[in-house]
Amino acid sequence: MRSVCGTLIAICLVACCSMAQDRSHVVMSEKTQKLRTIYLKIRGPEEAATKLRASFAEAVAGKDLFLADDPHQAGSKVDVTIKERNLERPFYAELTSATLMARDGKSTAVSSCNKVTDGKGYSAITTKAGTSDLMKDVPAKSTIYLEEGSQPAALIQTLQKQIREAGFTIVTVEKDADFRLKDIHLTRTPLRAAGMEATVQSMIHAAGGLELNLTSNVTTRVSILEPIASEAESCRSTVQRVAENGPVSYKGVALADVAMIERFIR
Length: 266
Description:
The protein is of the alpha/beta class and 266 residues long.
């Protein structure tokens, strides 16, 4: 009888210890979950707030971090204020320009967009295939002669590559060419762009009581203001890429805030 009672007591102790460990594991898991959860509060224009919230969701994905709708479920909190203002800023279209001369002597000024820059160190490089707009009016399989002068060697090499990839043949004797490219040079044409600048202020309340205040300026270009120089028309589509992938974006703000929080929960 004593043996049976001892066995039952032992089973009960094992079961109780197991249950206690399970409860302890659950409590630790809940604490860990809360520690790695962020509550995000955004004040500002609805469209901007929606973009920023989506950027935060993308920033925490794959980092074992979470966003919560209830501040009591989060170990860290981010209070963001967005203020927008309209602006007009200069852009610059950087082009390769040349004179295209046919065998009959008829010549045309041609330009091809290399990039659009805001003049502050950021630019968007065009991704058009082939020779872009320099050779757009040249019949397929024509022979081309490049008149080299004082141009940078890299410019000529780029043109040669583009011309060949577009299906044209480069000849080394001028009289054998259907078309001649001469006066090849780089130019920079000013543009004007209307857009909006947002000041984004993030007050971060990280786990452990640390508080940080981060401020960023996010610029969104909306459109090019007319008139636009005819030679810069080929750069028009590039401006949108500058707007979407600027040096500081809502995505950049979210990544910076999340990275700062992540430093204090590891």
